[in-house]
């Protein structure tokens, strides 16, 4: 590597490392709360029931404290450690536990449970917290 290229690389790396500290507000969330739900339908082969549940989840993603949502179905991967018995997964991220608690009590969430819970036989929830990276 040429000396000038190396110096340029080092200077740019130092600038890139300093920028996040300079532009990140102090109030930026330091924690991330992850809420992952797996829905097992009463009628697992029913595309109509799955479509209805997806309809409800698309309404649910409007809760304002949710930062990111992913709605998914089992992938076609095939390894012994993979659970594929669920119909739909609901993965959402919050800035912290308090924001997730607001979601749990939010009228949109309560209405979702009321209107769509008849579709599922079982729900498994994995909640986790950790530093925001």
From TrEMBL:
Ranges of residues in domain Stress-response A/B barrel: 33-128
One matching Pfam family: Dabb
InterPro entries per the UniProt record, alphabetical: Dabb, Dimeric_a/b-barrel, TAT_signal
Record-linked SMART domains: Dabb (SM00886)
Protein name: Stress responsive A/B Barrel Domain
Originating organism: Siphonobacter aquaeclarae
């Amino acid at each position: 590597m040429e000396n000038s290229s190396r110096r340029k690389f080092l200077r740019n790396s130092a600038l890139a490392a300093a920028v996040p500290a300079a532009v990140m507000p102090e109030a930026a969330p330091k924690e991330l709360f992850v809420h992952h739900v797996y829905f097992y339908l009463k009628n697992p082969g029913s595309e109509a029931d799955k479509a209805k549940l997806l309809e409800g989840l698309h309404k649910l993603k409007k809760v304002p404290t949710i930062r990111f949502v992913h709605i998914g179905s089992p992938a076609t991967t095939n390894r012994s450690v993979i659970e594929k018995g669920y119909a739909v997964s609901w993965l959402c991220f919050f800035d912290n536990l308090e924001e997730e608690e607001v979601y749990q009590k939010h009228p949109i969430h309560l209405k979702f449970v009321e209107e769509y819970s008849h579709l599922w036989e079982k729900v498994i929830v994995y909640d986790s917290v950790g530093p925001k990276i």
